[in-house]
Write a structure and sequence with these properties.
Layout: H1 6-17, E1 43-48, H2 53-62, E2 69-71, E3 79-81, E4 96-97, E5 100-101, E6 107-112, E7 117-120, E8 123-126, H3 131-148, E9 155-157, H4 158-161, H5 175-180, H6 189-201, H7 206-216, H8 228-241, H9 252-261
Parallel strand pairs: 1-6, 1-9, 2-6
Antiparallel strand pairs: 2-3, 4-5, 7-8
Helix pairs in contact: 6-9, 7-9
């Protein structure tokens, strides 16, 4: 039997004791932060569910579509939080607005329980939203805007970002209330009225409408033709800003609304304060 000297044995045990355990994960240092970053959330998209509350819940929790929030149509409406804001929900689908495509990755989706529309002998009839729903929606939107620093122009309808295939939230959705709450821009009525007579006298051509709609943010053809795709976009624009008539016809009032929205008033800097001069010796100050 070989005898290991005590000194060698002690060194061997000490060496084994200093071996660190194998790592269980990456070593992370959180002490540094990059300046070049931004919030994932750039937009909020408003939808209606086209069904009642039980079916809306089933669809948004078990199917391939989802939303971050579901606003009920109960007597006292409330929100179900279905997807955490840090995660992507599948609510926007094929979509576009300004420089962004596929807005699922850059937006929060809010579904509102509402039956949508039904076809009647008098034409398509849309269902209204309750005021209690809108009151709750405005509270949530204000909270989201504050937390994610959402620009005023980035609260949109599903039809804004997918005008060729979606109608929601439709002409009964009260966008003006959101404007009054300071959440979205709105064309000033006096500026619109001042422009209407000129457009009545000379209506711009179709390409002008297409360019203005694209400038506002819509994905719209730029071919100078009043095709169905262009009519669809004009109709979506009208449902938001002129819901009394949304037939997709480019008329003088629609032109005036577009012109005002795409031509913001210049920002006038505040006048510099006049320098205060000390009165001359012996001269009383006024």
């Amino acid at each position: 039997m070989k005898i290991i000297p005590l000194l060698a044995l002690t060194a061997l045990v000490a060496g084994c004791a200093t071996v660190p355990p194998p790592p269980t994960g990456p070593r992370l240092d959180h002490s540094l932060t990059s300046r070049a970053q931004s919030d994932r959330i750039k937009y909020v998209i408003v939808h209606y569910t086209v069904s009642d509350l039980p079916r809306s819940i089933k669809t948004l929790t078990t199917a391939d579509v989802s939303a971050h929030y579901l606003l009920t149509d109960t007597e006292q409406p409330f929100f179900y939080t279905l997807v955490d804001e840090s995660r992507q929900s599948n609510h926007a689908g094929y979509s576009s607005w300004k420089i962004y495509n596929q807005l699922n990755s850059a937006s929060i989706g809010i579904e509102i329980v509402n039956p949508g529309f039904k076809e009647t002998a008098q034409g398509r009839v849309y269902a209204p939203f309750s005021q209690a729903q809108i009151d709750q929606l405005i509270l949530l939107l204000k909270d989201i805007v504050k937390r994610h620093n959402i620009p005023m122009g980035n609260i949109l309808g599903h039809n804004d970002i997918a005008p060729q295939r979606k109608q929601d939230p439709g002409p009964m959705f009260p966008w003006k209330q959101l404007a009054d709450a300071g959440l979205i821009p709105w064309p000033e009525a006096s500026r619109v009225a001042a422009r209407v007579p000129g457009f009545q006298e000379q209506l711009p051509d179709v390409l002008w409408f297409q360019r203005k709609l694209a400038e506002h943010g819509y994905a719209v053809p730029q071919n100078g033709e009043l095709d169905q795709a262009t009519r669809n976009v004009i109709s979506v624009f009208q449902t938001k800003y002129r819901p009394s008539l949304y037939d997709g016809t480019p008329d003088a009032e629609t032109a005036a609304l577009l012109d005002v929205l795409t031509t913001p008033l210049p920002v006038i800097p505040a006048a510099a304060s006049a320098p205060v001069t000390a009165p001359a010796a012996g001269v009383p100050a006024e």
